[in-house]
Amino acid sequence: MNKMVQQAPGAFRGRMYQSGTQRRKEQRILVLKTGVAGLQHYIENEEDTKSLLAIQPGDELILFREPQNKYDEWAIAVHLTKEKKIGFVTRYKNESIARMMDAGKRFVAIVDSKEPPAQTEGEKKPEPYNYTTENFNLPFSIYLIEND
User: Fold this and answer.
1) What is the pTM of this model?
2) Terminus of the chain with fewer CB atoms < 10 Å: N or C?
3) Do the beta carbons of residue 105 and residue 144 sit within 8 Å?
4) Architecture of domain 24-147
Protein backbone atom coordinates (compact mmCIF):
# COMPACT_ATOMS: atom_id res chain seq x y z
CA MET A 1 0.00 0.00 0.00
CA ASN A 2 2.79 2.46 0.77
CA LYS A 3 4.22 1.69 -2.64
CA MET A 4 0.96 2.83 -4.31
CA VAL A 5 0.95 6.12 -2.43
CA GLN A 6 4.58 6.77 -3.34
CA GLN A 7 3.80 6.14 -6.99
CA ALA A 8 0.72 8.37 -7.10
CA PRO A 9 0.94 11.14 -9.72
CA GLY A 10 2.36 14.46 -8.50
CA ALA A 11 -0.80 16.41 -9.33
CA PHE A 12 -2.88 14.13 -7.12
CA ARG A 13 -0.47 14.47 -4.22
CA GLY A 14 -0.22 18.21 -4.78
CA ARG A 15 -3.98 18.75 -4.49
CA MET A 16 -4.12 16.56 -1.42
CA TYR A 17 -1.45 18.58 0.37
CA GLN A 18 -2.69 21.98 -0.80
CA SER A 19 -6.23 21.54 0.52
CA GLY A 20 -5.07 21.58 4.12
CA THR A 21 -2.49 24.33 3.80
CA GLN A 22 -4.20 26.86 1.55
CA ARG A 23 -6.20 29.47 3.41
CA ARG A 24 -8.29 32.17 1.91
CA LYS A 25 -6.95 35.63 2.60
CA GLU A 26 -9.43 38.01 4.18
CA GLN A 27 -9.75 41.41 2.53
CA ARG A 28 -11.58 44.44 3.91
CA ILE A 29 -13.23 46.82 1.45
CA LEU A 30 -14.36 50.22 2.74
CA VAL A 31 -18.07 50.63 2.07
CA LEU A 32 -19.17 53.56 4.22
CA LYS A 33 -17.87 56.20 6.61
CA THR A 34 -20.61 57.39 8.93
CA GLY A 35 -21.50 58.02 12.55
CA VAL A 36 -23.69 56.22 15.06
CA ALA A 37 -27.24 57.52 14.65
CA GLY A 38 -29.36 57.80 17.80
CA LEU A 39 -26.42 57.42 20.15
CA GLN A 40 -28.01 59.76 22.70
CA HIS A 41 -31.01 57.40 23.08
CA TYR A 42 -28.94 54.40 24.17
CA ILE A 43 -26.66 55.94 26.80
CA GLU A 44 -28.86 55.35 29.83
CA ASN A 45 -26.56 55.45 32.84
CA GLU A 46 -23.05 56.14 34.13
CA GLU A 47 -21.85 52.65 33.19
CA ASP A 48 -22.93 53.22 29.57
CA THR A 49 -21.11 56.55 29.56
CA LYS A 50 -17.92 54.91 30.88
CA SER A 51 -18.14 52.20 28.22
CA LEU A 52 -18.54 54.82 25.52
CA LEU A 53 -15.62 56.89 26.83
CA ALA A 54 -13.42 53.77 26.84
CA ILE A 55 -13.84 53.29 23.08
CA GLN A 56 -10.65 54.00 21.15
CA PRO A 57 -9.99 54.51 17.43
CA GLY A 58 -9.51 51.09 15.85
CA ASP A 59 -11.98 49.35 18.18
CA GLU A 60 -14.49 47.06 16.50
CA LEU A 61 -18.22 47.61 16.77
CA ILE A 62 -20.76 44.87 16.08
CA LEU A 63 -23.44 45.24 13.40
CA PHE A 64 -26.78 43.40 13.60
CA ARG A 65 -29.62 43.52 11.08
CA GLU A 66 -33.03 44.39 12.52
CA PRO A 67 -35.46 43.59 9.68
CA GLN A 68 -38.43 43.71 12.07
CA ASN A 69 -37.64 47.30 13.18
CA LYS A 70 -40.94 49.23 13.04
CA TYR A 71 -39.26 52.50 12.01
CA ASP A 72 -36.89 51.26 9.31
CA GLU A 73 -37.08 47.96 7.40
CA TRP A 74 -33.35 48.29 6.54
CA ALA A 75 -32.24 48.95 10.13
CA ILE A 76 -28.72 47.95 11.13
CA ALA A 77 -28.07 48.19 14.85
CA VAL A 78 -24.62 49.15 16.14
CA HIS A 79 -23.50 47.40 19.33
CA LEU A 80 -20.52 47.66 21.69
CA THR A 81 -21.18 44.09 22.83
CA LYS A 82 -23.83 41.54 21.88
CA GLU A 83 -26.04 42.91 24.64
CA LYS A 84 -25.31 46.65 24.46
CA LYS A 85 -26.81 48.56 21.54
CA ILE A 86 -25.53 52.11 21.09
CA GLY A 87 -27.50 53.17 18.01
CA PHE A 88 -27.91 52.51 14.30
CA VAL A 89 -26.32 53.02 10.92
CA THR A 90 -28.16 56.08 9.63
CA ARG A 91 -31.32 55.23 7.71
CA TYR A 92 -30.21 57.40 4.81
CA LYS A 93 -27.25 55.12 4.08
CA ASN A 94 -28.17 51.65 5.31
CA GLU A 95 -30.25 49.99 2.57
CA SER A 96 -27.42 48.70 0.37
CA ILE A 97 -25.49 47.30 3.32
CA ALA A 98 -28.66 45.76 4.78
CA ARG A 99 -29.44 44.05 1.47
CA MET A 100 -25.91 42.63 1.32
CA MET A 101 -26.15 41.47 4.95
CA ASP A 102 -29.44 39.74 4.12
CA ALA A 103 -27.66 38.00 1.23
CA GLY A 104 -25.05 36.62 3.64
CA LYS A 105 -22.23 39.15 3.22
CA ARG A 106 -20.11 39.88 6.30
CA PHE A 107 -19.23 43.37 7.52
CA VAL A 108 -17.08 44.82 10.25
CA ALA A 109 -17.35 48.30 11.77
CA ILE A 110 -14.24 50.07 13.05
CA VAL A 111 -14.20 53.25 15.14
CA ASP A 112 -12.40 56.02 13.22
CA SER A 113 -12.07 58.60 15.96
CA LYS A 114 -13.96 59.94 18.91
CA GLU A 115 -14.78 63.26 17.33
CA PRO A 116 -15.66 64.44 13.82
CA PRO A 117 -13.02 66.52 12.03
CA ALA A 118 -12.72 70.07 13.32
CA GLN A 119 -13.88 72.88 11.08
CA THR A 120 -13.37 76.60 11.11
CA GLU A 121 -16.09 79.22 10.87
CA GLY A 122 -17.74 79.19 7.43
CA GLU A 123 -15.80 76.15 6.22
CA LYS A 124 -17.80 73.48 4.41
CA LYS A 125 -17.77 70.19 6.29
CA PRO A 126 -15.64 67.57 4.52
CA GLU A 127 -17.21 64.36 3.19
CA PRO A 128 -18.85 62.43 4.74
CA TYR A 129 -19.58 64.94 7.50
CA ASN A 130 -21.85 67.23 5.51
CA TYR A 131 -25.06 65.37 6.38
CA THR A 132 -27.19 67.38 8.79
CA THR A 133 -29.28 64.29 9.60
CA GLU A 134 -26.42 62.57 11.41
CA ASN A 135 -24.86 63.06 14.80
CA PHE A 136 -21.14 62.33 14.46
CA ASN A 137 -20.30 61.81 18.13
CA LEU A 138 -18.79 58.45 17.19
CA PRO A 139 -17.54 58.26 13.59
CA PHE A 140 -16.86 54.76 12.25
CA SER A 141 -16.19 52.95 9.01
CA ILE A 142 -17.97 49.88 7.68
CA TYR A 143 -15.90 47.35 5.74
CA LEU A 144 -17.13 44.47 3.60
CA ILE A 145 -15.23 41.27 4.39
CA GLU A 146 -14.21 39.44 1.22
CA ASN A 147 -12.24 36.22 1.00
CA ASP A 148 -9.80 35.83 -1.90
Assistant:
1) 0.69
2) N
3) yes
4) 2-Layer Sandwich (3.30)
* Cβ(140)–Cβ(63) below 8 Å: no
pLDDT tens digits, 70-105: 999 999 999 999 999 999 999 989 999 999 999 999
3-state SS, the chain, equals CHHHHHCCCHHHHHHHHHHHHCCCCEEEEEEEEEEEECHHHCCCCHHHHHHHHHCCCCCEEEEEECCCCCCCCCCEEEECCCCCEEEEECCCCCHHHHHHHHCCCEEEEEECCCCCCCCCCCCCCCCCCCCCCCCCCCEEEEEEEEEC
Bridge partner residues of 144 (DSSP): 29, 107
